Amino acid sequence: MVRVVIVGATGRMGRTLVGCARQMQGVVISGAVDRPDNPSIGRDVGELAGVGAIGVPVSGDLSLALAAGAEVVVDFSDPASAAGNLAACAGAQVAVLVGTTGLPADIEAHATRAAARIPVMIASNTSLGVTLLTALVRECARLLPEDFDIEIVEAHHRHKKDAPSGTALTLGRAAAEGRGAAFEQAAVMGRTGLAPRRSGDIGFAVVRGGDIVGEHDVIFAGTAEKLTLSHQATDRAVFARGALQAARWLAGRPAGRYGMSDFISIRTGA
Ligand code: NAD
I want to staple 130 with a disulfide (CB 3.0 to 4.6 A). Which of 20, 125, 172, 210 is the partner? Predict the structure, then answer.
């Protein structure tokens, strides 16, 4: 059994992770962490997740959960806490999967530093389908002529904070890689007013509303034909199951950086 600590344990993803872990072989929730001022501190995380008590109270202190024999941390919490969580995991020699999105630009430096000591995975989307979609987008961008314009449309629930989604940005980076283009120069984050399309742009459009779990369309629009690669998540359990499976795998790896494609061994050809 791999002992997993969930950070962000009382949130939407945290509760889904706890529920999924109950049904999965080879993982056990050994710790549950949330903000120290969270009103659910001290309550059993299984009860909060609706699966009945599992004997794990929500704690406000990651270091205590790490010290209690954790083997991997699964962090779906807040972008501002990711760097500190990486450092704490590195200090405790515990592997970490960060699923939080909207991470600050300097997270790469923190992740690289931690990865010298522990296995680190930063995954903006932990579903099998989006991992495969990312590989397909890279390949389509590589194969299609450059007059196929690339546009990415994503939709999420009304509570989502970051935009465009981390997944949309990952898909955009994959498209830019396939084209051999610099993502930062190609990316156009929404258009308004007079905003004609430049050749080579990768455009992003964002929809927020209701309880949409997560939808991503990557459009390759050519002349007289259009190819759309599309993924829809209808239940956040797909992210939770993928994250727990990847975390179980990550716990046994040597120190270093890993991605979801390493876990499911997709050969992208890139
Ligand atoms: P949420 O707001 O429902 O939950 C976040 C939880 O983190 C809350 O309980 C909050 O109290 C807690 N938190 C905030 N700061 C904290 C801190 N410093 N330490 C510990 N806990 C803290 O959000 P959510 O919908 O569960 O999403 C969480 C994150 O996961 C977001 O960044 C979201 O975009 C991302 N996400 C990623 C994937 C993926 O596949 N990688 C899928 C869904 C959501």
Answer: 125
Using a 6 Å CB cutoff, which residues line ligand 1? Answer: 7-8, 10-14, 33-35, 38, 76-78, 81, 99-102, 123-126, 236, 239
Residue type at 137? Answer: V
Question: Token pair of 95, please?
Answer: 């592997």
Question: Residue 266: its pLDDT value, please?
Answer: 67
Ligand 1 pocket test: pick from 64, 85, 101 the residue with the most ligand atoms within 8 Å of its Cβ: 101
Give residue 125's identity as a one-letter amino acid code.
N
Antiparallel, parallel or unpaired: β 226-233 and 214-221: antiparallel
Whether residue 161 lies in the annotated active site: no
Which pLDDT does position 267 carry in this prediction?
57
Residue 14, φ and ψ in degrees, nearest 5: -55, -45
**Statement: residue 142 has pLDDT above 60:** yes
Closest to 149 (Cα-Cα) out of 189, 186, 104: 186
Nearest to 30 by CA among 12, 62, 52: 62
Q: What percent of the chain has pLDDT over 70?
A: 98
Residues 73 and 18: their CA atoms lie apart, in Å, by 13
Q: Collapsing DSSP states into helix, strand and coil, what is residue 219?
A: strand
Q: What is the pTM of this model?
A: 0.93
Q: Contact 80/52 with Cβ under 8 angstroms? A: no
